[in-house]
Amino acid sequence: MNQTVRQPIRLALPAAALALLAFGPSGVLAQGVQCQITTYPRPLAFRDIAIARDAAVGAPISEELMVRSLIRCPRNASFVRGSVGFEVQMIPTQGGSRTVSNAWETGIPGIGVRVFSVSLGRTISGPSPANAIPTINNRNPTTANYFFRHQLVKTGPISLTGNITGRTIYTMRNRIASSGRITDTLDTVNLGTLSVTSRTCTVTTPSVNVPMSRALASTLSRIGEVTGTTNFTIGLQCESGFAVHITLTDATTPGNRTDILTLAPASTAEGVGIRIRKADNMPVSFGPDSAVPENTNQWLVDVSDGLSSIPMTAEYVATGAVTPGTVHGLATFTMSYQ
């Protein structure tokens, strides 16, 4: 009677042990198993870069360069979909940009790189190591090409010009999804030598004297009436391929944001101001003395190809009861090359 009670207990133990052994290894890849990665072309060879002096931080400064990574991953003997697999990570060598959230630094001051994964359909050059492709989770050996778009962007002031030797910008490695194990570096991507120049314009008329025509006070009897239009130009000599912007600033009243220039202290006339118009006859409003992109009341003059001058006009405008006398006004202009 005692034997028939003990025997089922002894048989149950190895059965349980066998069940544990059968399920134990199903979510584990062998230590040392990893993919092979080869990237083309290498180093990254961008065309010569000509940067507009006042380009905004984050602005693209190069063409998009397509890069192909050939990734070969071994057989996954313990395949269970969704539980194990290979992740491919990109690790920025120079760190993430502090000024452009979706770019990595290149080691060249003011120049970063933005990386877009075609297979993921998004930019992956964020502030931390990025998964570059979907997880590779197959039972059989896998060989596939993955494509990435690279573009250089402005991350700050660019002080270096000429031929600049590139550096390593990121490495590639595996992360084993089930265990979190990180492999050694599997591939290294470098930036080739860059040829960098700064584009700008030369102002050929740094001081513009506008001799206003004589006008009768009687022609300015009501507020808003205008008279005495005078033409003038701001002369430029520009390189090609960038947008030229300008801001006019009221030198007598720098905070003036209207389209009427304040009279300078030397004026003896009263109740009159000066309005400046662009070539399309639109009045110019005044803004801060700054070349930053999107400065208040900054306006686009033209794309710089063939640009040699900015035609403008000046006119008297009644601002109140007009008292005859002399009229003097002073404005400054600030060019912004974007």
UniProtKB/TrEMBL annotation:
Annotated organism of origin: Cupriavidus agavae
Biological process per Gene Ontology, one example term: cell adhesion involved in single-species biofilm formation
Fimbrial-type adhesion domain ranges (all copies): 196-338
Keywords (A to Z) from UniProt: Fimbrium, Signal
InterPro entries: Adhesion_dom_fimbrial, Adhesion_dom_fimbrial_sf, Adhesion_dom_sf, Bact_Fimbrial_Adh_Pro
PANTHER family with a match to the protein in the record: FIMBRIAL SUBUNIT ELFA-RELATED, TYPE 1 FIMBRIN D-MANNOSE SPECIFIC ADHESIN
UniProt protein name: Type 1 fimbria pilin
Cellular localization per UniProt: Fimbrium
Signal sequence bounds: 1-30
